[in-house]
Amino acid sequence: MIDHFALALTHGLMLLAAWRLLSRPDLDDDQAPAAAPDRRILRKSERRPGA
Fold it and tell me: For 7-20, what is each residue's pLDDT tens digit?
């Protein structure tokens, strides 16, 4: 038997997530800032002296 509450809950949450994503003002903005730069872990030999 199908649990209708579980189906309604999961589909409702997916609908809410899609609605929030589609309502973002920077969704179709070519001038939007890029994502944060990647932070990489430096090896001991690459670290600045005194840092």
Answer: 999 999 999 999 99
Distance CA(33)–CA(19), nearest Å, equals 22
First-to-last alpha carbon distance for the chain, in angstroms, is 62
**Tokens encoding 35:** 């994502």
Are 2 and 10 within 8 A, CB to CB?
no
Provide the token pair at 41: 């872990």
> What residue has token string 């090896």?
43
Residue type, 25: P
Contact status, residue 21 vs residue 27, Cβ threshold 8 Å: yes
Asked whether the CA dihedral 41, 42, 48, 49 is positive or negative, the reply is positive
Q: Tell me what pLDDT residue 37 has.
A: 59
